[in-house]
Design goal:
By secondary structure, the protein is mostly helical. It folds into 3 domains: about 55 residues, no CATH class; about 80 residues, Annexin V, domain 1 (Orthogonal Bundle); about 120 residues, Annexin V, domain 1 (Orthogonal Bundle), CATH 1.10.220.30. It is about 65% helix and about 0% strand. A two-stranded antiparallel sheet has the order 1-2. The longest helix has about 35 residues. It is flat. Keywords: Bacterial flagellum, Cell membrane, Cell projection, Chemotaxis, Cilium, Flagellar rotation, Flagellum, Membrane. It holds the Pfam family FliG_N. This is Flagellar motor switch protein FliG.
Length: about 325
């Protein structure tokens, strides 16, 4: 058998799968494309013997690459190289990183992932709202929500609007922002236009930020961008999120819901949501709703969505009046 340096990537992959055994290999196969599975299956079938030394080297190489990917995800290339040098030595660390960078697409602003919200806020709060929006679009929802919640009130809605309306950002713009922030990640930025932000991004952030910040941003957007605010609000709490409410909150919501709307809404709900609702109704009312659902026959999806949205609107209204609490990230305080 050849040395590992002489083996192709396909050969190494086949050796690794053989070493891992059939159970783990079958799990990996589930995540591969059909042509990849065919190539690997053929290579495994043609692999006659593997020396213990080769097997050990392939496993070690795989482990090192996985370790590097984990470090990159945590803090970027620089952080990964620093930790790998301590673990493997400078020469080996450079070798592992070089194997990854040819195909690896590292997201911009990875270096800020290790910063806490206060550090990050000091780092970017004086930047232009568009620059802040671009940076926050690349961060996790929890990190971005912590930053946006600490911005000046007049900046919060502006940044939220810019994130929601962001579509594609030129690599040159990203590089310039990183240059201004004195962080050189330009060589690792994907040269294709990168899709960031959008309504889904700001919804995820607003669902995590504290209620006061969310309310201020939404009220401002309703004045400045009513259509955008409506689109965001519709996505912020979907019907299935009723599972995040406790039993007392669900019972309070159901008191204001029309029985016919409830029956139609539940026609399109999954079993878990249906059970959460039925468990908070009286046996008599639960039986009546189930009977209505059975006898109403097929229902248009449009009608189901409208009925579900009515219930969502009731939930939002009850939250605004502090009659129920929607569980959120960021350590919301709940006062009974």
């Amino acid at each position: 058998m050849a040395k590992t340096e002489e083996l192709s990537g396909l050969e190494k992959a086949a050796i690794l799968l053989i070493a891992l055994g059939p159970e783990k290999s079958s799990t990996i196969f589930k995540h591969l494309k059909e042509d990849e599975i065919e190539e690997l299956t053929l290579e495994i079938a043609n692999t006659r013997s593997i020396s213990p030394a080769i097997k050990e080297k392939v496993i070690d190489e795989f482990y090192e690459i996985c370790l590097a990917q984990q470090y990159i995800a945590e803090g970027g290339i620089g952080y990964a190289k620093e930790l790998l040098e301590k673990a493997l030595g400078t020469e080996k660390a450079v070798d592992v990183i070089s194997k990854l960078t040819a195909s690896l697409q590292v997201r911009p602003f990875e270096f800020v992932k290790r910063a806490d919200a206060s550090q990050l806020l000091n780092f970017i709060q004086d930047e232009h709202p568009q620059t802040i929006a671009l940076i926050l679009s690349y961060l996790s929802a929890s990190q971005a929500s912590a930053v946006i919640g600490s911005l000046a009130p007049d900046k919060q809605a502006d940044v939220a609007k810019r994130i929601a309306q962001m579509d594609r950002t030129s690599p040159d713009v990203i590089k310039e922002v990183e240059r201004v922030l004195e962080r050189k990640l330009a060589s690792l930025v994907n040269q294709d236009y990168t899709i960031v932000g959008g309504v889904d991004a700001i919804v995820e952030i607003l669902n995590t930020v504290d209620r006061g910040t969310e309310k201020h941003i939404m009220e401002t957007l309703e004045i400045d961008e009513p259509e955008l605010a409506d689109e965001i609000r519709k996505k912020m709490f979907v019907f299935e999120d009723i599972l995040s409410l406790d039993d007392r909150a669900i019972q309070r919501v159901l008191r204001d819901v029309d029985n016919n709307d409830l029956a139609i809404a539940l026609k399109g709900a999954n079993e878990e949501v249906q059970n959460a609702i039925f468990n908070n109704l009286s046996k008599r009312l639960s039986a009546m709703i189930k009977e209505d659902m059975e006898f109403m026959g097929p229902v248009r999806m449009k009608d189901v969505e409208e009925a579900q949205q009515k219930i969502v609107n009731i939930i939002r209204k009850l939250e605004d009046s502090a009659e129920i609490v929607i569980s959120r990230g960021g350590g919301d305080e709940i006062v009974v």
